[in-house]
Design brief:
Elements: E1 6-10, H1 18-34, E2 37-41, H2 43-50, H3 54-71, E3 78-82, H4 88-97, H5 102-106, H6 109-117, H7 126-129, H8 131-140, E4 146-149, H9 154-171, H10 177-186, H11 190-206, H12 209-221, H13 227-238, E5 249-252, H14 280-288, H15 309-317, H16 320-331, H17 337-364, H18 366-395
Helix pairs in contact: 2-3, 3-17, 4-8, 4-18, 8-9, 10-13, 11-12, 12-13, 14-17, 15-17, 17-18
This protein binds tryptophan (TRP) and iron/sulfur cluster.
The site of iron/sulfur cluster has 14 residues, from helix 15, helix 16 and helix 17.
Amino acid sequence: MYAERVLSGMRPTGRLHLGHYHGVLKNWVKLQEEYPCLFFVADWHALTTNYDTPHIIEESVWEMLIDWLAAGVDPSQATLFIQSRVPEHAELHLLLSMMCPLGWLERVPTYKDQQEKLSSKDLSTYGFLGYPLLQSADILIYRADKVPVGEDQVPHVEITREVARRFNHLYGREPGFEDNAREAVKKLGSKRARLYLDLRTRFQQEGETAALEQAHALLEEAQNLNMGDRERLYGYLEGSSKMILVEPDALLTDAARMPGLDGAKMSKSYGNTIFLREDPDSVTKKIRTMQTDPARVRRTDPGDPEKCPVWQFHQIYSDQATCAWVQQGCRSAGIGCLECKQPVVDAVLKEQAVMRERAQPYVDDPSLVRNILADGCERARKLAQETMRDVREAMGLLYS
Ligand code: TRP
Ligand code: SF4
């Protein structure tokens, strides 16, 4: 029930570029081999800022899914779905909104930042303020332990932890919890029970997180526990309430920061992108006209790779020998800039050829993508419904 689970979402706001690939998708592809992964299209999140242009979101959803598949996200390993097709996210968001203090949301740094950055839009909306709480619902509803995100999203995972803690504290309390928990410990069998209590002490008295993790593993393996006892034992490790919602951890990727064509961060709003599935001629042209070290006016002027965005591309795409060739050739004016760019052109085209090939069947037959989605949505929904059952029960909303 609490097997390590990875969850991440992406807002559908247009075609993906190499920045998304090197910064996010490559990491997803790696994670899907190591963990059960859920990756979803955060269409409701896109609506919080693009509520006035919903048709763009609709188009982007399918393009983005094809981009994911092109990058190697594998629907036979990971579960792919669309947020709005699992309406339980909205129900959990609503229930969490009852107990989430306004101050927590107002304090999230992206709230003010984005309002200032997107000042042409009216973002003093109810939905936009609630953005991080919706994200909390996305995460908590799958009891995800690990959430791969960029640095800017870490505060959202933090607030998710606080929300989970508050929820468990408010609704995980039951009369006689201590007694029930001690009874549940006995059900582990004497050897496991001793180990469990020992780990619990080590965590509570010494703050050893390794002990906590080991105890979680122990509970995962324990066969003869019902769900209520399991939640009690998870909660008993840390305090005096059942653990209904699981506190997630952010999984920060140390992905290379993908430079754009001008050396600044690659971003659609800077117009310095190469799209994931861009036409080869267009890619070639973009790289060939990329700016270089401004000091190299003539072919005979020596240059400095540190002042050139092409060098940043080499650092991502070229092997050591090629990098040495660039360093030496640039500083001695031994090579020309077009010559220097050619290995980058070749490497990007090679990377993209694989992606275009993977995407082709889905481009030819969009029903394939729809089937993958139908499948993923159904799987995700089952998991979400399990959690919602526990949440409703804890809040007294089962009426059975
Ligand atoms: N807010 C994230 C972003 O802008 C997208 C997102 C929505 C997300 N829900 C999530 C990411 C849940 C991780 C987990 O990138
Ligand atoms: Fe940049 Fe290469 Fe030209 Fe040097 S030779 S300025 S690294 S493109």
